[in-house]
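Much of what follows relies on a compact textual record of a protein's fold. A complete example follows; check for yourself that the lines match position by position.
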Amino acid sequence: MHAIELTPEHPVATLASFAERAETNGLDAVFASHHYNNRDQFMALSAMAERTDDVSLGPGIANPYETHPVTLASRVATLDEMSGGRAVFGIGPGDKSTLTNLGFDHDDALRRVLEAFATARRLWDGERVDHDGTFEAVDAGLNYEVGEVPVYVGAQGPHMTKMAAKHADGALYNGAHPKDLAWAREQVEEMADERPDEYGAFDLAAYASVSVAEDEGAAREAARPPVAFVAAGSPPPVLDRHGIDRDAASDIGEAISAGEFSDAFERVTGPMLDAFCIAGTPETVAERTAALEEHADSVVFASPLGPDIETAIDLLGAAIDRRSR
């Protein structure tokens, strides 16, 4: 799978146009990210479904804190119905910096994510569900039929990655560097014997922030915002793997939580850009993508994509076309 992530910082109609362009360029899936201060991801995905015919569509990711997991399961099922069976359920704990603004923390993150998608699967199978864990559901059910929806867990740390490898259809692994994907592959392989056979093959997808343009400097400058969020949300072992100062990453997270985005983006360093984003010319992006695919089964080209998104989608599509020949 080669896919892209679109951030609903743009109008919904524009996002739908981008998704249509992605399909035209031969991409397999389009994910919509979620932060409360952007437009609603499911409304954006609904518009994308109306403008496309073949690409898979899904949240990348939705979190089970802001929305009750039963309601979240119904939203994904509705998207699947609207798109003619093309939904993918991307679920994860969510971004720490923006969830803090809403009074949520990441308590029991792994357990909550697992319980949320396990409940969703039961609901999609037509069961009525009683659940008393990180959330409560009493005789909950959906009043309509749902097809099979693949579940991809947003992961970065060892525990979430291993849980995904055991229980989910795939992982959207938050990494843009071969070091990270090589490490993620090790976690997946450790769980191979514990994964039930009926789940089938596991898809380790590199969810890699990408910024591509003919001008390398412009591509790297456009990468600052997403790299700020990745650096702020990365666990200490990931920061240490790339020699990133923990305090510097923490300062970025504090600036984001305070709404001081310009300050946060300015604090992004060159090593952070190299560790957490593939940024540069089409040739650079093609080389870095090939390096990721030595460890990953799929690649999701995540935001920002580039200083001009339409051009970036075309450049990525051309790169994929060249690699497939």
Summary: The longest strand covers residues 203-212. The chain has a mean pLDDT of 92. The radius of gyration is 19 Å.
